């Protein structure tokens, strides 16, 4: 297979976005181009995923070196189990929310730059999932953020503009810190390639005579600040609820499904491989404490905020945060199973959360509001919407055998098994409160009687249903995807488990990008260290010869010469 084809996952939405710029005011043509782009990305990601997945007997990581420049000197794109799962889920979410917008977005807004912005957002998201170096990760973040800034103010409502200022300011600050931290990484190690950084850290861990550069932990905390802000970790979540509350509902669904997951993905990708290391083969205590605290408070405090709200959009927006807490929980445990649970939970949350936002959009079409005091009787008025909402809500809660159950089960079980029982307890309590908040929407909105003053005359049930068929189609597509993730959890979790293994053990990633010989030094170091320990026990310590690799900017053991006598006299 030609591995360079994985770049199509970025090229297709980029080309569609550029083409849509020339199709301004041509809604039908723009819609056709965008739908074709989303479907093509989804189909290609599934094809590549099946090619690399353990289900087919394959166990490979697809790598494309741009321009023929080999890593770590060129631009590297990497497609593995984790990036494949996330790109497929991102394309599904983008397609569902895009089709939904045909019914709910103001035609005057849609006629302008909405279509190219949707494509450029997906381009930035896919590039974030595929890129193999920190600088191009920064570039991908900026493409994604520039698109999100524009979508955030689309329609130019006063509330949107007020929240956009805060969102843009915080993300510009985060991007500045990201760029500074990337420069410091290059100063320490002489490379920004993720696989090369992982190789250097693995070699340092294998050699007890060496240690990580001074300030490495502080640098890791800087990255955690950047990605935590983008992922809405505690205490960096304060920008999200008001931001998602003000934008068009289809855009809110897309943001709720995609944007925070990019922040979570970067932490899951970079920290087990590189930045959570303590240089001695273990996990940095500072990083692990930060992740544990962030997971506990993100889950619990956010779900308390959701329970206290009385507007559907705000409840769903705050639940984006509380569910991110489960993902951080999986990363904090940092075992293969926990990381696999995190990967599975990320993709199911992308689909389910977007579906719930889109359901809220149709509820607003019926009632003209999302205030629970002014809702009621929706189950009798529109039972199909009620069924779709209930399935998505129970999937979010984690009711077995729906999709949310399996990710939460694996993460919480791994927490108890690895000694993080307190995070497991917080996770269970958060799940119970999530159920309470979802039942609150269900009982107020669907089961309560119709409000005394009724609904606006122009929102007759048949008229709403007939005028919003694309919205129902988008919701149904996402709910079916969620049901597949629940009832077909075994094959999906098999891929997620492989993703967890690849995150926990850097060998597959490093050798795929840098070649089979790249990891040999670290393995030989570990073997020699074991021999040294044995020889030391026998009374014959070994000596080593170390030289410096100038490109890496840190000592790398080039060869180990062990001088031990053939026999040891008693």
List the helices and strands and how they pair.
Elements (H helix, E strand, L loop, with lengths): L7 H14 L5 H26 L9 E4 L10 E4 L1 H24 L2 H4 L3 H17 L3 H19 L5 H32 L4 H13 L9 H16 L8 H7 L2 H27 L9 H24 L3 H22 L2 H32 L10 H4 L1 H15 L5 H15 L3 H27 L13 H7 L1 H19 L1 H16 L2 H8 L5 H18 L9 E3 L4 E3 L14
Antiparallel strand pairs: 1-2, 3-4
Helix pairs in contact: 1-2, 1-5, 2-3, 2-5, 3-5, 3-11, 3-14, 3-20, 5-6, 6-7, 7-9, 7-10, 8-22, 8-23, 9-11, 10-13, 11-13, 11-14, 12-13, 12-18, 13-14, 13-17, 13-18, 14-16, 14-17, 14-20, 14-21, 16-18, 16-20, 17-18, 17-20
How many structural domains in the coordinates?
2
Estimate percent helicity: over 70%
What's the total number of strands?
Answer: 4
The arrangement of helices and strands along the chain is HHEEHHHHHHHHHHHHHHHHHHHHHEE
What distance lies between the first and last C-alpha atoms, to the nearest angstrom?
60 Å
Query: What is the strand content?
Result: under 5%
Strands across the major sheet, in which order?
1-2
Q: Give the number of helices.
A: 23
Overall spatial form: globular
The parts where pLDDT drops under 50 for at least 5 residues are 540-570
* Helix/strand structural class: mainly alpha
Averaged pLDDT: 85
Instruction: Characterize the main sheet.
Output: 2 strands, antiparallel
Roughly how many Å is the radius of gyration? Answer: 25 Å
């Amino acid at each position: 297979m030609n591995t360079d084809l994985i770049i199509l996952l970025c090229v297709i939405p980029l080309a569609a976005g550029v083409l849509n710029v020339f199709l301004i005011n041509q809604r039908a043509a723009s819609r056709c181009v965008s739908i074709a782009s989303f479907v093509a990305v989804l189909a290609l990601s599934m094809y590549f995923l099946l090619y690399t997945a353990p289900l087919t007997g394959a166990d490979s990581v697809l790598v494309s070196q741009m321009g023929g420049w080999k890593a770590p000197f060129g631009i590297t794109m990497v497609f593995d189990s984790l990036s494949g799962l996330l790109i497929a889920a991102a394309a599904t979410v983008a397609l569902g929310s895009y089709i939904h917008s045909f019914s709910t977005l103001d035609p005057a807004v849609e006629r302008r730059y909405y279509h190219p912005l949707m494509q450029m957002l997906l381009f930035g998201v896919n590039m974030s999932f595929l890129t193999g170096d920190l600088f191009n990760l920064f570039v991908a973040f900026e493409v994604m953020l520039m698109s999100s800034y524009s979508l955030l103010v689309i329609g130019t409502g006063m509330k949107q503009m007020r929240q956009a200022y805060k969102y843009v300011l915080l993300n510009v600050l985060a991007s500045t810190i990201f760029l500074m931290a990337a420069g410091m990484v290059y100063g320490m190690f002489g490379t920004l390639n993720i696989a090369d950084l992982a190789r250097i850290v693995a070699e340092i861990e294998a050699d007890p005579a060496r240690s990580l550069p001074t300030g490495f932990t502080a640098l890791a905390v800087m990255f955690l600040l950047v990605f935590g802000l983008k992922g809405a970790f505690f205490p960096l979540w304060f920008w999200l609820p008001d931001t998602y509350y003000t934008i068009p509902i289809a855009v809110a669904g897309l943001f709720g499904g995609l944007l925070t997951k990019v922040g979570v993905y970067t932490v899951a990708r970079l920290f087990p491989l590189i930045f959570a290391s303590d240089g001695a083969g273990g996990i940095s205590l500072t990083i692990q404490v930060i992740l544990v605290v962030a997971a506990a408070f993100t889950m619990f405090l956010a779900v308390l905020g959701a329970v206290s709200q009385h507007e559907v959009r705000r409840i769903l927006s705050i639940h984006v945060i509380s569910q991110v807490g489960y993902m951080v929980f999986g990363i904090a445990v940092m075992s293969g199973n926990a990381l696999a649970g995190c990967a599975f939970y990320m993709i199911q949350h992308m689909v389910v959360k977007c579906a719930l936002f889109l359901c809220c959009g149709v509820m607003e079409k019926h009632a003209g509001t999302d205030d629970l005091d002014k809702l009621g009787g929706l189950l009798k008025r529109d039972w199909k919407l009620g069924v779709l909402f209930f399935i998505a809500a129970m999937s979010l809660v984690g009711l077995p055998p729906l999709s949310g159950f399996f990710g939460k089960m694996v993460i919480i079980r791994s927490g108890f098994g690895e000694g993080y029982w307190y995070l497991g307890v917080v996770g269970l309590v958060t799940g119970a409160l999530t159920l309470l908040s979802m039942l609150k929407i269900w009982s107020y909105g669907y089961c309560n009687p119709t409000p005394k003053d009724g609904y606006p005359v122009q929102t007759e049930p048949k008229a709403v249903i007939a005028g919003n068929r694309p919205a129902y189609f988008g919701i149904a597509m996402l709910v079916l995807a969620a049901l597949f993730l629940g009832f077909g959890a075994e094959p999906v979790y098999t891929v997620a488990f492989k993703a967890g293994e690849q995150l926990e053990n850097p060998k597959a990633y490093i050798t795929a990008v840098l070649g089979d010989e790249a990891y040999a030094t670290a393995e030989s170091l570990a073997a020699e260290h074991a021999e040294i320990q044995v020889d030391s026990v026998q009374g014959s310590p070994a000596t080593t010869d170390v030289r410096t690799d100038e490109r890496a900017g840190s000592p790398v053991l080039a060869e180990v010469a062990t001088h031990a006598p053939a026999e040891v006299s008693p």
